[in-house]
Design goal:
Chain A is built from 8 helices and 10 strands. Chain A has 223 residues and is an alpha/beta fold. In chain A, α1 runs antiparallel to α4. The first copy, chain A, binds a DNA duplex (22 and 22 nucleotides) through α1, α3 and β2.
Amino acid sequence: MEDLPHIPEATVARLPIYLRILLETADHEIGTISSERLAVQAGANAAQVRKDLSYLGSYGTRGVGYDVELLIFQISRELGLTQDWSAAIVGVGHLGQALANYRGFGERGFRFAGLYDVDPRKVGETVAGIEVRHLDSLAEDVVARRIAIGVITVPASHAQEVADRMVAAGITAILNFAPAVVTVPDDVTIRKVDLSIELQILAYYQQRKTGMTGLLGHRAAAL
Amino acid sequence: MEDLPHIPEATVARLPIYLRILLETADHEIGTISSERLAVQAGANAAQVRKDLSYLGSYGTRGVGYDVELLIFQISRELGLTQDWSAAIVGVGHLGQALANYRGFGERGFRFAGLYDVDPRKVGETVAGIEVRHLDSLAEDVVARRIAIGVITVPASHAQEVADRMVAAGITAILNFAPAVVTVPDDVTIRKVDLSIELQILAYYQQRKTGMTGLLGHRAAAL
DNA sequence: GCATGTGAATAGATTCACAGCG
DNA sequence: CGCTGTGAATCTATTCACATGC
């Protein structure tokens, strides 16, 4: 298999996990790893690991396993992590500040190159060593600081508007933390992280467990 | 379709989105909504909306659409949101504090009933109106405060240990923000939110766009 | 007539199972 | 002989298309 045929979405989502495990493995000075071992550590199935890795090419050795360093390089290259990426955070609330301070983003070349808000009390402040600028400065900064990724941490009511401004500013990859459906043009990639949806999903599965106490799956004692 | 046959995972993940849209729709005093309209607002396909909703039962009216209030109730019931849920956050770093302060969790009956850390400088402090307690108190609090959900916001190196203590304390639903694979027994539901993985996925798709400039998809100018 | 509800068709992801190679 | 690489089989999810019923 060669370079261009694109990788299934589900595989792309797992490559970063493999990469992290491989980096840890390399730290332990282990030179080679089997799909079985990688699968156990990733909480997956060995056949899946092999199939996923096969989309990158044939970098394993039969009877031996995968060379850890080689695989780190190949996955990094495939994910585009051989270059550095600059991101802008729009919305300097609790979450925006937490992200700005989050160590472990550098995990693979991500840098927050800008923090934006419209609140005059926040503009001019410094958070995590970055000066908060007015959202109006975003467009010029995208060019000047080569910002490629936008992170939305504003309230839901402003999320679409912020996304529109990001797109207008030339950003084509967005990570949305606001609890709102945001639509963007086809050439813009958007992903969402929605904390309250995650909790609701957990609640569903949790209810299935405890709700089984009554005969008909009725609701259990609420608090 | 009746009560027990369980709902596909993909559908469960979308129900909270529909619910949110329906709540907004209700705010605008609109009594009825079509699958088409719901689909547009959720960024989905009308057939999918109908199929998803059909797992809850037949709550639509042909030729008309769905009664907004009725659907809100049915989805809420299915997701287990007719009861309140208490969650504990373990790890009072930037992210843990941001979550504790996050308004909009109450969006459907979630309450943070406990904040835990092991750092003596943090234990005893108050964050978002909640006293930070030592992780050792978790087990007793799970019982006393009926905590059902655990949220992990500690560094990756401690995530598994914290998860183990949550499980030992009787928690059976966990949301993990630490960039680490955490394993739990089968009867425990775990979901992960991994910020750096999300950025890496964006980087992949971003690269596909810009990386096409060179003939062979080689890496572009790094900064 | 119009929008739901749903079988049937399609697409996508996971797992199996084994041939192929070091 | 052991572990990769991958077609084939299976399972899950999405989309189509239309019969059904208000």
